[in-house]
Amino acid sequence: MSEPFSVRVTVRGYETDVQGHLNQAVYVNYAEHARWSLLKAAGVTQAELIGQGVGPVSLETTIRYLRELLAGDEVDVTCAFEWGEGKTFRIRQEVRKTDGTVAAELTAVTGLLDLTERRLVADPGKVFRELACDPGLFGL
Predict the structure, then answer these.
(1) What are the pLDDT digits (tens) for 16-34?
(2) Which domains does the chain possess?
(3) pTM metric for this prediction
(4) Contact at 8 Å (CB) between 83 and 89?
């Protein structure tokens, strides 16, 4: 199995809390950045999603903090889609230090919202397959 998609991020000083650790909310921002980077790499833009009348929605996010991150640390944020049956899918992500140490694990339950009906799309994988130049990045 190949490595999941990843993007490198440098922890900035203004993203840290009073203990000098990366603020907990920023982990979600890093995860979101990696997701949008994966979409871009697969050839899917925000404008194309809106043009299709859909938008990604997060339904649940779980973060497991394992090691501290400090200003100046470089990390790789991975992103792997897991498909099942139905309207939702999971995105599994890791925030890894450059030495391979996992600093955090994130799991998100996600779907695609039909922007007119305001309901989840029945087959989100189909939408990504149709829009993507490289659906393999989505595990499709």
Answers:
(1) 999 999 999 999 999 999 9
(2) 5-138 (3.10.129.10)
(3) 0.93
(4) yes
